[in-house]
Amino acid sequence: MRGDGARPCPACPAHDGEHDISEGNTVLEKIVGGELPPVILVDFAMFSVADTMTTLMGVHGSGRAIYRVDAVQDLETHGAMSIDRLAELYTREIAELAEFASPPAGVLGYCSAATLALEIANRLGDGGHAPQVVLVEPTWLTTDLIGQELANLRTSLGATGDPPAEITPASVLQTLTGDLVTKLAAEGMPESEIDTCVTMLTDRYAAWFGFLFATAEAAVPTPRTPVSLVISGDSDKEPAPGWTPAQCALVRVDVPAGEFLGSEAVRRQILRLIDQPHERHQEPRHEHR
After folding, report:
1. Do residues 210 and 233 share a domain?
2. CA distance 106 to 99
3. DSSP reduced 3-state for 226
4. What was the pLDDT predicted at 89?
5. What residue numbers bound the domain in which 256 lies?
6. Contact between 137 and 231 (Cβ < 8 Å)
7. Mean pLDDT of the chain
8. Position 9 in a domain
9. How large is the average pLDDT for residues 253-282?
10. How many CA atoms lie within 13 A of 233 on its CB side?
11. pLDDT of 3-18, one tens digit each?
């Protein structure tokens, strides 16, 4: 998952149903310009210096404009939403963006964004033009994986207490709030400042884990057109359960996981996959640097 311990990653307070977001309030951010049909990137702004898909793809020279949707940012602003609702909002915004001279050529999703990226791509395809779908190091979320993400974040906070007996949005937020208070108090922060800091950080945790729980609850969409899964040389990532070789292909790039999001070879491979015509996938491919 994208939350790694270096990031004060956003969790999910209880909400009484989904919030109604009016048109134009979700964020479709232009990362880099270009004359070729654009690419939609589903990625999350980071709160650390770690490489991201945005830094990987936001490089001039390919000729393609890159637009990012950041579901975690939108959830932090607007509150809980399902993956289906997020995809609906983003697809509508993409369709209505006047500066798009042609439909998107591709949709990219990294790690836990894979499910949302595929849902957006399927909806764009329903409009008459199916984009290429490239999922990079895809993660198919479960409650157990969310528990692992919580454990990683607690380790980064130096937490030593027991984990929650059950992994739920409420228990995750309660646990992280307690961990934050303990850590900041131990560092000597005044109580008045602790409250402000904890509120800010738990809002971010709320959005991050809110997205993870929404993704785990959503059914992974069935690909309408063949999907490319781009993974590192030492990755153990796999297609979603039930997918067939006709629906997807693993494209392994010979780059270690720690260098993956900073690799020009990875960026070139992703752009090649976006440029190719739709075809029936057959065998896994292995790309060298």
Report:
1. no
2. 16
3. coil
4. 94
5. 28-141+219-287
6. yes
7. 86
8. no
9. 86
10. 12
11. 543 333 333 333 333 4
CATH of the domain at 273: 3.40.50.1820
Helix (H, G, I), strand (E, B) or coil at 42: strand
Amino acid at 221: P
Is pLDDT at 286 greater than 60 in this prediction?
Answer: no
What is the count of structural domains for the chain? 2
Residue 133, classed as helix, strand or coil, is strand
Total-model pTM: 0.86
Handedness of CA 110, 116, 122, 125 (dihedral sign): negative
Other C-beta atoms lying within 10 Å of the C-beta of residue 282: 10
Q: What are phi and psi of 179, to 5 degrees?
A: -65, -40
Q: How many CB atoms lie within 10 A of CB 236?
A: 7
- Token pair recorded at residue 201: 């950080």
Residue 190 domain-assigned?
A: yes
Q: Which two tokens stand for residue 47?
A: 């709160």
The structure tokens 């764009």 sit at 124
Spatial neighbors of 274 by CB under 8 A, at least 6 apart, are 39, 64, 105, 106, 132, 134
Check whether residue 62 and residue 202 sit in a common domain.
Answer: no
Q: How many residues does the chain have?
A: 289
Q: How far separated are the first and last CA of the chain, in Å rounded?
A: 24
CA-based torsion, 71, 278, 227, 264: positive or negative: negative
pLDDT digits (tens, 9 = 90+) for 220-250: 999 999 999 999 999 999 999 999 999 999 9
Rounded Cα gap, residues 211 and 123, in angstroms = 19
